[in-house]
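P.,

For your records, the input lines for the assembly:
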Amino acid sequence: MSNWRGLLSRAAGLWQRQERMQDLQREIESHLELEADELQESGISAEESRHAARRAFGNTALVAEDVRALRSLSWVEGLGRDLRYAGRALRKSPGFTSVAVLTLALGIGANTAIFSAIDALMLRPLPFSHAEQLVRLYATKNNVAIEGFYAGSPSPPDLRDYAQASHSFQNMVVYDAWRKNVSYGDAAGEPEQMSVGLVPAAYFQVLEVKPLMGRLFTEEENEEGKNYVAAISAHLWKTRYAGDRVILGRKIRINDEPYTIIAVMPDVIPQWMEARHPGLIEVWTPFAFADAWSEASRRTHGYDALGRLKTGVPLEQAQADLSTIAAALAAAHPLDQGNGVAIKPLADTRVGTLRPMLFLLMGAVSLILLIACVNLANLLLARNAARERELAVRVALGAGRGGLVRQLFAETLLLSLIGATVGVALAQTGLTALARMHPKNLPQLDSVSLDWRVLVFTVIVSLLTSLLFGLAPALTGTRLNLVDALKQGGRSGTSGVHSQHTRKLLVVTEMAMSLMLLVGASLLVQSILHLERQSLGIRQDHLLKGHFYLPGVRYPDPGTLTRFCDEFARRVRAVPGVIEASITTIYPPNNGWTQMLGIPGHPATRIEGIPAAQFGVTDAHFIRTMGIPLLRGRDFAESDNASSPPVALITQEFRDRYFPTEDPIGRQIHIGPPPFLQIAPGANITDASDVTIIGVVGAFRNAGLARPPEPQIIALYSQHPLVNYGFKDIVIRTASEPHLLGPEIRRQLHQLDADMPFAQVQTMDELVEQETGGQRFTTALLASFALGGLALAIVGIYGVVSFLVTQRTQELAVRMAIGATPTTVLWHVLKQSLGAATLGATLGLLGAVAAQRLTSGLLFGISSLDPVTFAASAVFLLAVAAIASAIPAARVLRIDPARALRQD
Amino acid sequence: MPPGNVPSRTELLQGTLDMLILRTLLFGPAHGHQIAKHIQRTTEDVLQVEHGSLYPALHRMERKGWIVSKWEMSKERNRELKYYRLTPTGRKQLAHEESKWKQMAKAVARVMWPGPGELS
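Structure tokens returned:
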């Protein structure tokens, strides 16, 4: 460590220096004694001669200084001394020091924390080789990206055709993940529900992830019935199988069926990759869906797809290539009409829809750094202007220009160092807080850590600012005419006009930037409040929901499923504290299951013309449990069962869309694709049944929080055996705190089936919160930046005004002496700062209007140019500015003209 | 010193002081006070050595290796004093300074009192 050696030798040098200076002192003293002796010999008194000797010698300290200057070529030592002086100087003005340090710390800390977080979220390189070649493929409908719940890959047969016809890709894969009940070991054990990847070997091949042990799935294993093989993660292998060396060939039980472990995969696939599915995926089985590849399923989206581009193929070329193929497919297959594909670099899909929001955050936090720098500049300018006299006195006493600059440099450096240290602490605390509050849909935040590159960058930026503004006045200051500076020190009413302008300009900048932040943050806060507080169309409070899955091995037919669900719901309703309960596949705010319909009066010959609606199956208690109002007709009854004619409820949206003028009650509709599509009944979760509409219920959010409700049809699982699957949720309306009932519901479930996990237990409120988690997280950050910016602006204005008052005390005193009332003088001072503030606010409003494009896509229920928000933010900021200037300005009222004028 | 760079007044004086100190030390080791007194006496008090510049000069010359110093007992004063001695480098430096000074004195003299030989 050559650094250490360097430090050691410098330390030794310092020690030697100390010795030498003592030596010089001794030498000078002996000189003085010799001189005094000599004088005494010529008959002068001892006392007198000592004085004379000293006089003859001159300033001993100056000599020592000269020798030291001669010797102190080690800048470290000089800096050390300057830093000690600087420390003393900073301690002498604690107000300035603490505000400057806090300003620096906020700028450095906030930027380091946010950029570190954003780095972890979406900037870090992907953990795959040649990750730039990796893309995700999304299905589009009529060239528009499908958003929200239906966002997904093109259908498997389409993707297969893309892969065959494309010249741009090395490989492509379509895959999926399902929540399944998993237990470990050779015997059945306590299962847990987790997402299981359903992937062909190509999934790992595209990502270029090789098994640590074992082999990838074969093509044959992608066939239903031959798919009882599994790959597990190294983490799972170590924790669940104790790192058993002979793991290959052991069993893992998935949905009560044994799968043979054939591979251990490295822990490299990050959770965000499959963020659509809750939790980290640690078990993979083959992609074995016979009907996924049928011609009939060309229209089914919603899988996941990845592709690896050939080396050097640009994204645009690949996209053009795919679009050409899509057009050919649409011409060849009627089901593919309107279907297209869009590709996105995998790296860009990391944070999903939060991407623009995070860029906004980056912008906002940069503004904070800018405001902090402006503030710092302001503080330093004010401080140094106030010290003009001190500096001039130093020069008059013989301080060299170099020494003066060096000392100011040391002061600024010390300030920056302290600021940076506090900033690092702040960043670390901030990051810990971020990681703790991180929403579930941003799993990357788990691995966030302080980014030193960002830290170095922000420290350098603030250091440069400090040096620029800390030294500039010093450099000009040393050029000042000493006499002028000394004379003006007391009566500086006319001096520093230029620097006053600079300071006002800084206030204007600060105001403008904090207003932009304030407007942006309040728009987003309002947006998220709208989003969270909107009515979902149900009674959201006191609702608990949980998910369970009835594995096909033990529940092989719809009748068994129905009996189990009905019995479970009946038992839950009997639990004290439960008001109502319903087994359902539907719950707001997302439904995610559509069915094509046949509706009289809506004949469809073209695929675009086929009526469709959100679909789901429940038991008869659904609308009562959810608190959805019945608008017309009747609710389901217990008498509606497997043996009675199928009935259905529709929402108001459905009625408006398909029965705008007639009464829908009693009308029959067909659920399922029209015959011309030749889709086998039951294939691809499609139904094929006729139902009679018995009631119209209120619309509720079923296409996401931010989207208007889509037409919804509610049917009974008992009457739709084709689509009565093992995936079910239970929704429970409770009398008191819903979570208190969770364990009891789980106990009821386990009484019926001890091996059935009860998963994703949460209240409806929590579900909504989770949906908005990412937005709430980023909005909270933005709001805190706006507050930080505001605080800095307040400090800035306060500082400028209080400096103004101090600097101009005498001028103001003169005004008062010749008859101005204190109020006039107060107004005179306030006018200046408020003028600057108003100008800043105006510029800020213009800036916010210019920046509205950034927020417009992120807002819900509020316009990005909402006049109330703009006006209120401006008024608020001006009011704050007025208070911040009024407090120091009020000092004017305490000026005693007589005393102020006598000073200096 | 690069050509065309006129030596400043302080530098000129400093150089002179260095030369005078070196010349004084040619007689043998001396302490600071002795050096100052010697220069003063020899120049009949024309050159007052400012003590303020003497010690920095001594330290500078020591750093350059022209002189060395040592604390020694003074017999006549009965106390420890810091004695400076000329080094061989110092001797060379003295010769160098001397010739430089002579050259300059000659040059100045030519301007001030032009002789007949110089005019022809």
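Two observations worth noting. Residues 773-817 of chain A form the longest helix (45 residues). The two ends of chain A are 56 Å apart (CA to CA).

Regards
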